[in-house]
Amino acid sequence: MDRNAELFARAERVIPGGVNSPVRAFRSVGGTPVFASRAKGQYLWDENGKKYTDYIGSWGPLILGHAYEPIVEAVTKAAERGASFGLPTEAEVEMAELVCSLVPGVEMVRMVSSGTEAVLSALRVARGFTGRELVVKFEGCYHGHSDSMLVKAGSGLATAGQPDSAGVTRGTAATTLTCAYNDADGLEKIFAEHGEHIAAVIVEPVAANMGVVLPEEGYDPVPACGEWEEHTHCGRLIPGKKGFLERLREITARYGALLIFDEVITGFRLGINCASGYFGVTPDLSTFGKIIGGGLPVGAYGGRRDVMSCVAPLGPVYQAGTLSGNPLAMAAGLATLKTLRDNPNIYRDLNYLRASLGAGLATMFAEKGLRAFVQGIESLSTVFFSETPVYSYADAKKCDTARYARFFNGMLARGVLMAPSQFEAMFLSAAHTNEDIEYFLDAAKTTIESDGF
Ligand SMILES: *Cc1c(COP(=O)(O)O)cnc(C)c1O
After folding, report:
1. Residues 6 or more apart from 212 whose CB is under 8 A from it?
2. Residue 111: its H or E element
3. Which of 44, 72, 292, 408 is disulfide-compatible with 288, CB 3.0–4.6 A?
4. In ligand 1, which atom is closest to the CA atom of 265?
5. Rounded to an integer, what distance in angstroms lies between the CA atom of residue 370 and that of residue 207?
6. Residues 106-142: pLDDT tens digits?
């Protein structure tokens, strides 16, 4: 009996595509979606009782692993006190204080219920604060499914976006300009033309929704150590050049536009001080989701006090939510953030695991003469089946997605659950161990040596 298939057949009759979020349908890798029945730590069991080591991690929130005991306890206790009140609670104050103390540039923060909501609210605030209408996003960055972010590049040199989903009006899409990731010169040109109308530039400080793509790092004019070699790990660094994120900061400031870091994935994933702390670049606004909710539906946006003072009831930008700051979600989020804050070794260990996974895979691919790049940072990584490293969405689109599908299915059969798409990240959690990485590498070896790969 195949319970996954049975459930999927039932689901397809009553849920569009059988799933509540498209990537779960496994369309880009083929086969029947895995229906989760339970999970603990790094392991997940499907409805057929098959056990997997999980590298999806609910797409990011579960940095401490599944059903982490202190989170389960905190949520249970909160549920006993009441699931929702529609009144302010102490947990929300604690959460806001914690986020403001941890994230550079965040002086005030508002809780919402998803990353999508955090982004659309932050964009509204940016437009309200600056009195300008245009925003700029980078191709391949995902910022949730609000209309103004479901926009793709126009044809040719046009920077005004086109709808990337049916149902998004051309008018809305036209207020979003698009630029290639890692192309600060391109952004400079967009500002030269539209600068006085641009309210904000939004960016994933590490792009993790086209696979993991790092921002080009800059150089000090003269590196303190005097050794360029040490710093040339991405191979495209030019001495004296500013990094991508630093240039975004500089360009937006020069034109009076706001810089928004979408930290829904990077927040509390790159480190306890998020991407802004990690790269030393402070945006005007930041958006959060995923880890901040510890597995429950949460988002947040925050930043400069003068900008956040535009939000109702303090200012003229309206934004509200029946379940915003929900007590169960705050309990899960607080338990997660406090564990991360009080155990800095977690980040060190995660980075070590990710690096050994990446190095093991890279060596294996090289030995087999297989063109692939393992790109990663801290506990995020992606195996790109590509001829060249990936710096932008145009590069990502050149990947061999059929090969990724074969890799995914080979790993799945051997009990390793990776993202069912080439253009997603692998998420490590504090529950993963060296043994899991060894198992992963063994499974990868058998997979790429098997017939037809
Ligand atoms: C997941 C994600 C979102 C959307 O968050 P939801 O909670 O799914 O609405 C926004 N931005 C980034 C960078 C994300 O990874």
Report:
1. 206, 375, 376, 377, 380, 381, 382, 425
2. strand 108-112
3. 292
4. 15
5. 25
6. 999 999 999 999 999 999 999 999 999 999 999 999 9
